[in-house]
Amino acid sequence: MAERIEQRLEDRIPELEQLERVGLFTHKEIRAVLRKASALEYKIQRRALRKEDFINYIQYEVNLLELIKKRRARIGYSFKKDEIEHSILHRVHSLFNRATGKWKDDVQLWLSHVAFCKQWNAKHQLSKVFSTMLAIHSNKPALWIMAAKWEMETRLSSESARHLFLRALRFHPECPKLYQEYFRMELMHAEKQRKEKKEFEQAKMDLGEFNYSEEILNGEMARIVYRDASQKIKGVEFQLAVLSIAKLFDFTQDLQKEILECLQARYADDPLTWDYLARRELELGSLQPTEHTTKQKKASEMAQREERCCAVFDEAVGAVPTEDMWKCYITFCLERYNRKTNSEELKQKRLERTLSVFSKAHESNLLSEALYKQWLQLLLDSSLSEKAVEVSEAATRHFSQSVETWQMRLQVLVQLKRDDVTQCFEEAIKHVKSKGTLPLWTLWVEWSEGTNGKEDTEALYQRSLHATTPAESVTMKEMYLDWTYRNRGYKKVKKLFTSLCENRPFSLDFFRKMIQIEKEQESCKMLNLREYYERALREFGSTNTDLWLDYIKEELSHPQGKPENCGSIHWRAMKMLQGDLVEDFVSKYTLLQTGHL
């Protein structure tokens, strides 16, 4: 092994001598490079190879190349690149080849080699890398697309890109993304040939030796790709994707027409088809020049275009009366309503249209829960409070078991300060199962705190503890404790804390809240603090290091504290804490002892 390493280091000597001779590196730097290279070589020649060693070696060589590049720019020397950079590049490619040969499944390693080849313009080497990588990772369409794009855009070889796409489709005959990119490539090829032909014609050159097929110039190859894909890939999303690609090229009108006809014939019942057809009306109208039109005229034209869109949507919800179709219609209306405009008339029209569509969808019983929420928000923003109450009631009739819907309705009633809030809360609790009702109870008690008397609010808190699930009651206990302290005082909250401690579960914040309350008292008693800490440690002592440290700090800093108890608390913590928490506790305790915590 040593002989091999010595040989590899000797192979470096010519390039290092050149670096020193031309003044890019000093003799001291050359010796440092040799030492580092020797250490890295030993690591990659071991019997048990590690991927990290190869990555570190490659990174070192790349950094060396970057440094040489900067030094060349600084002193203005651009010769001897074959003797210096070429040698280093060859070594990096060799390292990448060894690494990818050893760890073939690591895609990131292959991509790093690809990126390196692109950075240093190693086209011949990159072609080999793609060939080897695709032979091993033929199951990844994204890699085929990357290779084909490089052939098309960098090497300007449409034939090679086409060959790669055809090979990829043998492995992935039903991959939509592959077909989309192949379709795009053929259109790019046609556009490139059209430009070439135009330039030759402008230069009045003889086109006899160049064979420009009219079919290829008109995108016939892309049409063949599309027809083949349409037979294998079902779904309106693919049709819309290829249509959006075709629209990027100005010679594809016939192709766009064919795709559109196929879309309407095969997917007439799909909401996305109708959504596209409706939104297309906006684009068709915007093709006309609008340079010298007034703002008022622009707003009028926009209103007309939107009316045409809505006419298509109205036809759509008649032909495909589904929840998804109404969602597309409403989404369009909301998008238009949220667009900024200086025309108040246009904005009002958009609002009226949107509210009208919401109402029609509701009458058809095809409005989703999320859309009811958007409808309500729109009504509240538009100060239509009575209508908002009516809609929220209708939403809870349709989704009577949904906590979110009831919460939405109650928030509306609370916001409008209605008299029937309590009745609505009772109705909500009756309809919704106990699990998941926490948002309703928190909303109810928060409302009660600001509206009802203390007795009613306390009764509500007591009721919520029994009505919610044990896990949800934890939050209610925290809120109850806080409310009692604010409204009933210290003695009441202490009594309540003792009472609540009889029923698990608890949260850490529940105990911390009580500790904080005790510390806020003028006569803060260490005896009480110990009781609260001990209760908290029984529940969370095995999983929380900070609780133990806070207890120790309390004994050290409180006037009634006993510092001699700290040793006992430390010993208990070491016994009770689990896993890595012991080490975490020891390090924090050491910092505490040295005054750094």
Low-confidence stretches: none
Mind describing the biggest β-sheet? Answer: none
Strand content: under 5%
Q: Mind telling me the C-alpha Rg? A: 37 Å
Distance between the termini: 52 Å
Q: How many DSSP-defined strands?
A: 0
Describe the 3D structure.
It is a single chain. The chain has about 600 residues and is an all-alpha fold. Among the domains are: about 100 residues; about 70 residues, no CATH class. The chain has 30 helices and no strands. Helix 7 packs parallel to helix 9. It is flat. Its main location: nucleus.
Keyword list:
597 residues, mainly alpha
Helix-strand blueprint:
Elements: H1 2-21, H2 27-44, H3 51-75, H4 85-102, H5 107-119, H6 123-136, H7 141-153, H8 158-171, H9 176-202, H10 214-217, H11 220-232, H12 236-246, H13 253-266, H14 271-286, H15 295-319, H16 323-338, H17 344-363, H18 369-381, H19 385-398, H20 403-415, H21 421-431, H22 438-451, H23 454-467, H24 470-488, H25 490-500, H26 508-519, H27 526-540, H28 545-557, H29 566-576, H30 581-593
Helix pairs in contact: 1-2, 2-3, 3-4, 5-6, 7-8, 7-9, 8-9, 9-11, 9-12, 12-13, 14-15, 14-16, 15-16, 16-17, 18-19, 19-20, 20-21, 20-22, 22-23, 22-24, 23-24, 24-25, 24-26, 26-27, 27-28, 28-29, 28-30
